[in-house]
Amino acid sequence: MMKLKLNDNWTTTNGNQPLTDSDVERYVSVVPTTNQRRLQDKPFYLFFHFGMNTATGREWGNAQETVEDFTITNINPEQWVRVAKSSGATGIILTCKHHDGFCLWDTGATDFNVMNTGLGRDVVKEVSDQCHQQGMDFGVYLSPWDMHEPTYGTPHYNDFFCRQLTELLTNYGDIFEVWFDGAKGANAKEFEYDWNRYYKIIRTLQPGANIAICGPDIRWVGNEGGKSRKSEYSVVPTYLTKCETIQKNSQHTADGGAAMQRIDSKDEDLGSRKVLSGNAYLSWYPAEVDVSIRKGWFFNKKDNRNVKSARKLLKLYLTSVGNNCTLLLNVPPSDKGVIHHKDARALKKLGSAVADITANPVLVQNFGKLGDKDGYLEFRFNAPKKLRYCIIQEDIAHSQRVERFDLYLQKPNGKYKLAYRGTVIGSRKIIKLKGQCTGAILVIRQSRSIPIIKQIGFYE
User: Measured between alpha carbons, how far is 183 from 99 in angstroms, rounded to an integer?
Assistant: First the structure.
């Protein structure tokens, strides 16, 4: 086993990096809030893009819509939530108001709302009620940019927006996430949103909610193609918590979302020691992967032919939830008021596939702070096993520490084979495996201070 270089680990060379010094202690002092820790226990949830664009067949509005343009006359939120639950998701975020300004709830702030349409039903209430009845978390998306509201671009708009936000956070039960984006049309009026005021309202009315993207709790992964980084750090420079609130960094056209599906590798490294050493202020700011099950974000029947398969969705799950991120999968209800049967079928199959990951445990072991003899961890199985997955979790209450590791599997002939070479772990690393084996060795090669491992599990 000497060829495995087991002596080259965090207790000895530590990748030629300091195991502990003042910089390292600064990095590992950055830990998640209670809300952020809760998020990592429920890392998969759905987006419902539904509204005026569902009726008009657009991705963005054109500022000319009237309530008469919302021609949808029936919805089935019970089916929406039931389908979402079948996918293995634990929560739903609803687009309560998109950029067109049309509101899906009984708001007193504007007449441009669903109560003045042929549907005449408070969609936010019906979806939130179904979430609470079916044991799902409920969250809200509220677009700061509003094409319809005449006060937009004036100081009065911040008052208008805060009234809307207060309604949503007061009348619809517990909210687990508030999702803001900075998208703004290229011809939109120059206007600075009062983000700090918005955040204060959320912290006061819904103290258990995380604030995502244009907010301090959850970071946009950087694209809408479902791609995460090789090393997805949760400890990053604090300036990133403000990045999406800057207009020039946000989407400016309806077609801009397609460009965001092309990965920009220049931002690949957000949290290495090299990056952190040059920044005085650091934050726990984990990544959320947002991606649509369809080509577009709102329902369009022309997209029925390109609904992502359960196989593709599982791959997205493994490379997001399984790579220290959360997954926000968009599933748009149709203009018939239901989740399309193709989407529903793919989601149900995804739910079964996700459940299968941990359905057959071979060995699951809890740890804690490792000792000076734990440079590598050895596992023996009671018989040859056909492994499918290994799941490693750090105890993120003590920050994100592991920077590099190797996983070896022992074949029935006694020989070891490198199965996976990884970097960071964080809240959850899901490693796909194959082949018969009788044991395994995990070597943590490099760490920021002493590794604190919550659990390691092997599954067939």
Answer: 8
Both structure tokens of 290 = 């947002």
Which pLDDT tens digit goes with each residue over 394-448?
999 999 999 999 999 999 999 999 999 999 999 999 999 999 999 999 999 999 9
What single string gives the DSSP state of each residue in 315-357?
A: HHHHHHTTBTEEEEEE----TTSS--HHHHHHHHHHHHHHHHH
Contact 235, 282 (CB under 8 A): yes
> DSSP letter at 241?
G
Q: What is the pLDDT of residues 1-30, one digit of tens each?
A: 448 999 999 999 999 999 999 999 999 999
Helices (H), 1-107: 22-28, 34-41, 52-56, 77-86
Q: Are 96 and 89 in contact (CB under 8 A)?
A: no
Structure token pair of residue 96: 């309560």
% of the chain at pLDDT higher than 70? 95
- CA-to-CA separations, 365 to 69, 290, 300, 393, 441, in angstroms, rounded: 57, 32, 47, 11, 13
330: which residues sit within 8 A by CB, 6+ positions away?
A: 46, 47, 48, 49, 290, 291, 292, 293, 294, 297
